[in-house]
Write a structure and sequence with these properties.
The complex is a heterotrimer of chains A (242), B (212) and C (202). Chain A is of the alpha/beta class. Chain A is built from nine helices and ten strands. Chain A has helices spanning 42-49, 74-78, 96-106, 112-125, 141-153, 174-186, 198-204, 222-227, 232-241, and strands at 4-13, 16-26, 31-35, 57-62, 65-66, 81-84, 159-163, 190-194, 207-212, 215-220. Chain C has one domain: MetI-like (MetI-like fold, Orthogonal Bundle). The chains are: A alpha/beta (242), B mainly alpha (212), C mainly alpha (202). Chains in contact: A-C, B-C. The structure holds adenosine-5'-diphosphate and magnesium ion (MG).
């Protein structure tokens, strides 16, 4: 059974059909990279997976849990799905450590000391062991995004969602965040990454998905996807970004 | 019931006085606000400090103290004032201090690039202010000025305490004559103030949304 | 007297503001409607008239009125609590609205319940955003304690008022009282700015 299975997913905001019949499957330990022009519905797909946005039709199953089943509670879903945002969305009134421990303490019910241990280990893993007591405003963008990754990992998720995790960063510091993401991929974390980093997709992805105007135009392993794109729309998009 | 109906005309006259106070005070406050606010936005630090002191003083002391001072205090210094004049003056000075903050805030919120662009065209300091900065700042002043008017209407009720026959004082006089009408009369007065002020504050909020 | 009224007034207004703001964002439509009606009414009517209503009109309510004869100081404090509380509701609601949407999403994505999202993420930030406006409202309440004198409670100002009646040397006295108020207000302002600095992000 795949880790994530979306079939026939539809979503409209008012008259605006943002997702039209999306079918997507991600195997355990795979890295799925979603690329496509802005406004094509990439963020919406991620938001549907953890129910930040309710879908209008179709089904989504994560690790055996049905997103459309009302008996499945939000927290059951969200503790299994970590999310990293383009704008980091760190809590500005908390230190890095407090950002990372909030979920484990309040959702998983960990004791403060255990949550602190976990936070220390994860902050060390993203290279920020010495920044545990810093506020977000004292950290650079790259450091903030790495804290945000640690915060999501602290829940022990089955799937990690990355929504343009490096788009808000200056080009010279995207590398430090991409390095953390590559490390996670090497450890066989199941990841779905919306990204504009073609180099990252080529190197790390199991599958590259190209979206345009609410539909999946083409989906292939990176070799085939970049080497021999099939659809005209994919070719024209790739010719602009590569 | 009878004395309630009898009271209505005097309440209406009182409301008229409330409007007179509020409009007169608003006019003075806007004028004061423009002079003080513009001065403050242009003044060098040394000159700005005393002006800031004046503004903070009139914002800081309670309006009622100001009103009593103008009405009871000034005559003892040999200056006769009428009740209405004292009320309007107190409201005007108090609201004028607030208005100057509105004007100054709006002027300094206009990006420096506007002034620089105008200066690059060769315009003088005063022309820049009049032709470039103030026209843009006016838009930002409008919502807070509308809200200020609601505040003046609300605050004008203090005039009753120096015996100006505004809406509240008219109500008090009626209640003095017949204490049994207190409930309907004060309820009427509350509702009347609400009916006047609610649309004003709604308008201010709408403007705020539209203009930003 | 001034200090007591101000103290209970500030506490009461904060309680009213918090409850009102919670109701205004509650999922229950009747709670929202009630809180909105309360806020708009008491925000848009003069506190002095509210005090008069509480002191002189409430006791005339048929039936229960005679039990509602409030001591002047209670009526006055209550009036200030209602007015300033309604303003606090609006300030806190605006503060909650000003917290970026991404903060709620990030908290929800972690699996926090609606209540925990509010408690640990949204409210702490809203309070920091609201602090300057809340501070202004405290100052305004402090100044409004002067209204209390008008229904016969002696506050700082009422005492001066009485003395004038007897010795008629009001000019300096009013100025003195005004300056005392001014000093208190300035102190309050400084206090709030210090608090803002301490709680600032980062
Ligand atoms: N909460 C929302 N309400 C209304 N429209 C939305 C909302 N979120 C996204 N949209 C619209 O859905 C479309 C796809 O948005 P999004 O998924 O963010 O695209 P992408 O991430 O690919 O740039 C856009 O047209 C956007 O305006
Ligand atoms: Mg997006």
């Amino acid at each position: 059974m795949p880790m994530l299975e979306m079939s026939g997913v539809r979503k409209a905001f008012g008259q605006n059909e943002v997702l039209k019949d999306i079918n997507l499957s991600v195997e355990r330990g795979d890295v799925c990279c979603i690329i496509g022009p802005s406004g094509s519905g990439k963020s919406t797909i991620l938001r549907c997976i953890n129910r930040l946005v309710p879908i209008d039709g179709g089904t989504i199953v994560i690790d055996g849990l049905s997103v459309t089943d009302p008996a499945v509670r939000d927290v059951d879903l969200r503790r299994r799905v970590g999310m990293v945002f383009q704008q980091f969305n760190l809590f500005p009134h908390m230190t890095a450590r407090e950002n990372v421990t909030l979920g484990p303490r309040k959702v998983l019910g960990l004791a403060q000391a255990d949550a602190d241990d976990r936070a220390r280990a994860l902050l060390a893993k993203v290279g920020l062991a010495d920044k545990a007591e810093s506020r977000p405003s004292q950290l650079s963008g790259g450091q903030q995004q790495r804290v945000a990754i640690a915060r999501a990992l602290a829940m022990g998720p089955k799937v990690m969602l990355f929504d343009e995790a490096t788009s808000a960063l200056d080009p010279e510091i995207t590398g430090e965040v991409l390095a953390v993401m590559k490390q996670l991929a090497l450890e066989h974390t199941t990841m779905i990454c919306v990204t504009h980093e073609m180099g990252f997709a080529r190197e790390v992805a199991s599958n590259v998905v190209f979206m345009d105007a609410g539909v999946i135009v083409e989906s292939n392993p990176p070799g085939a996807f970049f080497g021999a794109p099939q659809m005209e729309r994919t070719k024209s998009f790739l010719s602009k970004v590569l | 019931m009878h004395s309630y109906l009898v009271a209505i005309p005097s309440l209406v006259r009182g409301l008229g006085t409330t409007f007179e106070l509020a409009i007169a005070a608003m006019a003075c406050a806007v004028a004061l606000g423009f002079v003080l606010g513009t001065l403050r936005s242009m003044a060098p630090r040394a000159l700005d400090l005393p002006l800031l002191g004046i503004v903070e003083f009139f914002r800081g002391i309670p309006l009622l103290v100001l009103m009593y001072f103008l009405f009871f205090g000034l005559p003892q210094l040999g200056l006769r004032t009428s009740n209405n004049a004292a009320a309007i003056a107190a409201l005007a000075v108090y609201a004028g201090a607030l208005a100057s903050e509105i004007v100054r805030g709006a002027i300094v919120s206009i990006p420096l690039g506007q002034t620089e662009a105008a200066a690059a065209l060769g315009l003088g300091r005063f022309a820049i202010l009049r032709l470039v900065v103030i026209p843009q700042a006016l838009r930002r002043m409008l919502p807070p000025f509308v809200a200020l008017f609601a505040l003046i209407v609300e605050s004008s009720s203090l005039a009753a305490l120096i015996d100006v026959t505004d809406l509240l004082q008219a109500a008090r006089q009626n209640v003095e004559r017949d204490p049994d009408v207190a409930l309907p009369i004060y309820l009427t007065v509350l509702v009347a103030y609400f009916v006047v002020n609610y649309p004003i504050s709604l308008a201010s909020q709408r403007l705020e949304k539209r203009l930003t | 007297m001034t200090l007591e009224i101000a103290f209970f007034g500030v506490i009461g207004a904060l309680v009213v503001g918090t409850i009102g703001a919670a109701m205004r964002i509650s999922p229950a439509a009747p709670a929202r409607a009630a809180a909105t009606a309360f806020t708009e009414f008491f925000r848009n009517t003069p506190p002095l008239v509210q005090i008069y209503f509480l002191a002189f009109a409430l006791p005339k309510l048929p039936g229960i009125g005679p039990h509602l004869i409030l001591p002047a100081v209670v009526a006055a404090t209550l009036g200030l609590v209602l007015h300033q509380g309604a303003i606090n509701v609006e300030i806190l609601r605006a503060g909650l609205q000003a917290v970026p949407e991404g903060q709620r999403e990030a908290a929800a994505a972690l699996g926090l319940s609606r209540l925990d999202q509010l408690r640990y993420v949204l409210v702490p930030q809203a309070v920091r955003i609201s602090l300057p406006a809340l501070g202004n409202n405290v100052i305004s309440l402090f100044k409004n304690t002067t209204l209390v004198s008008s229904i016969g409670v002696l506050d700082l100002f009422g005492e001066a008022n009485d003395v004038i009646a007897q010795i008629l040397v009001s000019a300096e006295l009013f100025l003195t009282v005004g300056v005392v108020y001014l000093i208190c207000v300035t102190l309050l302002g400084t206090l709030f700015r210090a608090l803002e600095k301490r709680l600032a992000f980062g």
